[in-house]
Design brief:
Blueprint lengths: L9 E5 L2 E4 H20 L7 H26 L2 H6 L14 H19 L3 H8 L3 H14 L14 E2 L6 E2 L2 H21 L3 E2 L2 H17 L19 H20 L4 E2 L8
Antiparallel strand pairs: 1-2, 3-4, 5-6
Membrane topology: Multi-pass membrane protein
Function: Catalyzes the transfer of the diacylglyceryl group from phosphatidylglycerol to the sulfhydryl group of the N-terminal cysteine of a prolipoprotein, the first step in the formation of mature lipoproteins.
GO molecular function: glycosyltransferase activity
C-alpha cells in the first residue's frame, strides 16, 4: 500500500486570495492547448492569433457545458429542488461529457465564423484536448476527488477521510485520458489521414478508457450503480461516444485526405 501524499489543495494564499491547484490545472490545460495550437495553426489555414479566439470559444464551451452537464447528469434532483444551485460552481463538479458537448457547439460556431469544415476543425482540436484532461485528473487527485474502489493492490492508497485503501483511479485516468490519448492522437495527426478520422478516434479511445476505469472508480454517491448492479453513469454516457466514434471513423473513409503539414514556429 502506498501513502497518499498530503498536498494542500491551495497552491497559493495571499490574505483572502486563495489559488487552488485544481484551478491551476485548468490554466495548464488551456495554456498547453494554446501553445500547441499556435504551432499547428497553419494546418487548417488559421493564424496564430486565431488560436486565441478558438481558445476563448473552447473555454466557454468547457465551463458552461461542463457545469450544465454535471447538474443534469449527476445532480438533476438537486437542481429541481434548488435551481440556483447551477450557479454554485464551488459546490459540485464539472462533467466531461457536458464539456465535450459545449466544445462541439463552440467548434461549430468557430468553424462557421472562419469558414472551416467542422470535422477539419475538430480533427485539429482533438489532439489538444488530452492536455486539459490529464491536468484535470491531477487536480482531482490533489483534491482527493474521484477515489477508487476498495482494493488490496500494492499501489492502493488510503484517501483523506477514509480508512480503507483504494485504487487511485484519477491517476489511472491521467495516464490513459491524458498521456496515452495525447500520444496516440499526436502521432496519428502527423500522418496523412482522412477527415474526421482523428475526431472519431478520440471519441472511441476516450470512451474505452473511461468505461474501463469506471470498474475501479467509486460510483458517484448520489447515483450509485444505475443498472445491472455494476453500470455507472460514466459508463452509460460513454456508450454513445463509442458508437459515434466508430461511425465517424467509418464515415471518414469516404472523405478527403488531410495531409500533415510541418509545424510552424510559435
Amino acid at each position: 500500500m502506498l501513502e497518499y501524499p498530503q498536498i494542500d489543495p491551495i497552491a497559493v494564499a495571499l490574505g483572502p486570495l486563495k489559488v487552488h491547484w485544481y484551478g491551476l490545472m485548468y490554466v495548464v490545460g488551456f495554456v498547453g492547448a494554446w501553445w500547441l495550437g499556435r504551432r499547428r495553426a497553419a494546418r487548417v489555414g488559421l493564424t496564430a492569433d486565431d488560436i486565441g479566439d478558438l481558445l476563448f470559444y473552447g473555454a466557454l464551451g468547457v465551463v458552461l457545458g461542463g457545469r450544465l452537464g454535471y447538474v443534469l447528469f449527476y445532480g438533476f434532483e438537486r437542481l429541481a429542488s434548488d435551481p440556483l444551485w447551477i450557479f454554485q460552481v464551488w459546490d459540485g463538479g464539472m462533467s466531461f461529457h457536458g464539456g465535450l458537448l459545449g466544445v462541439l457547439i463552440a467548434a461549430a460556431l468557430f468553424a462557421r465564423k472562419h469558414r472551416l469544415a467542422f470535422f477539419q476543425l475538430t480533427d485539429f482540436i482533438a489532439p489538444l484536448v488530452p492536455i486539459g484532461l490529464g491536468a484535470g485528473r491531477i487536480g482531482n487527485f490533489i483534491n482527493a476527488e474521484l477515489p477508487g474502489r476498495v482494493s488490496d493492490v500494492p499501489w492502493a492508497m488510503v484517501f483523506p477521510g477514509g480508512t480503507q485503501p483504494r485504487h487511485p483511479s484519477s491517476l489511472y485516468e491521467f495516464a490513459l485520458e491524458g498521456v496515452v490519448l495525447f500520444t496516440v492522437l499526436w502521432l496519428v495527426s502527423h500522418q496523412p489521414r482522412r477527415r474526421g478520422m482523428i475526431s472519431g478516434l478520440f471519441l472511441l479511445l476516450y470512451a474505452l478508457f473511461r468505461f474501463g476505469v469506471e470498474f475501479v472508480r467509486q460510483p458517484d454517491p448520489q447515483l450509485g450503480f444505475i443498472a445491472f448492479g455494476w453500470l455507472t453513469m460514466g459508463q452509460l454516457l460513454t456508450v454513445p461516444m463509442a458508437l459515434a466514434g466508430i461511425a465517424l471513423m467509418l464515415w471518414s473513409r469516404r472523405q478527403p485526405v488531410d495531409g500533415a503539414a510541418t509545424p510552424q514556429p510559435a
